[in-house]
Give the backbone structure.
Amino acid sequence: MQAGPRQITTPFRPIPLEVPEGMAANEFFNSTENLNDLIHNNGLLENPEGLLLYRKALGHSNEFDTSIIYNTSRSILNPLGRPVRRTQVPDHVKRDWNRMNQIIIEYMLQKFPDPAEHIVLAGEASLDATWPLTSPGVPSIRMLHNHFIVFDKNALIAADLADPANPNLTDGGQHSLFQSYMHDVYRVFLSELDLEILKPVNSNESMFELTGYPQGLPSWKIQGGAEALKNIRFWEEYDEILKGFIDFYRAFFSQVSSRNSPVPKDSYFPDQIESILLFNNDFMGAAKKVREQCIHDPKYSNSIRWQPAFKQLIYRNDQGDLIVTISQNSIGNAITELLGVVVKRTADAEAYEKYEPALIERLLEVRNRLVEADLGQGIATQYWQA
């Protein structure tokens, strides 16, 4: 069996919404105007904190696929003022957010217990409008949401190999700016984080044999497995990794933008930035290379995401351990591609309906667990009762 990224085809039911004239489809489906459809046709559960669990209408997988969005569309009308990452979520909301994550991940692991048969993942990606505003795919929704997905490994084995040059697969390994120029200093900087539950692992433990992904990314094993997710200390450490990533990203692109910039304001780890990053020749030399290319290549400069853009995942590896990883986010890529899974969505109601009963049954089962834990109230749609 040849190792390499896989491309699978996932059918979905065509969404009965008309995209307004002058809007791209992705702009409309990422817009707050689409949230009413999301709630009324696909909503599963919501709570007073504004957290909404819903079925993915344009799903990655029909085995199990759901998301939670922090729906601030009515409470924060300024899209640029909405929380778009875990570090910006109020503490009382984050408590429920973490508990919901723990319960859904536990359900997936119990329902799909064999790592040889299924890939289980949960994670989130930056929704900042960090692309150039004229680029296609700029997210307008700007509301934090995450993904809970299960893939059938047999389906992946049978799937076609994806093109490794696909731009959506190029945010890790030799393609990543971080990995190409700053691999060592990046790992040294992240090694300074105060972690007890999360233990650094090498690529042999984090990489799937089937896909060969993730590629070259810093990864940590969750010591204690699923039980550790019930410990608030784990979620604090999960946030520490994100804070470390954000500091590294901001410090680097501050140097790219303006030579010899100071430590960025409001950094989480200013002392480490000063002592590790700003005194590292590889780090500063890489910033010089990128800065000079920006000056001479307007197309390259326009493609850069100047603000922190990330994907952060919890997933089960081939050995059955839970792994955490974080990656620089490239333009347009889905969170599944970090693990080497490219999803081609096709509008095919008949094919989708073959999977729908089992999928909805699982989604309602996990919803019941959330309701029992006082994490929200069920939503009724034409497909299920409240």
Notes: The chain has a mean pLDDT of 90. The first strand starts at residue 6 and ends at 12. The first helix runs from residue 25 to 29. Residues 82 and 88 are 9 Å apart (CA to CA).
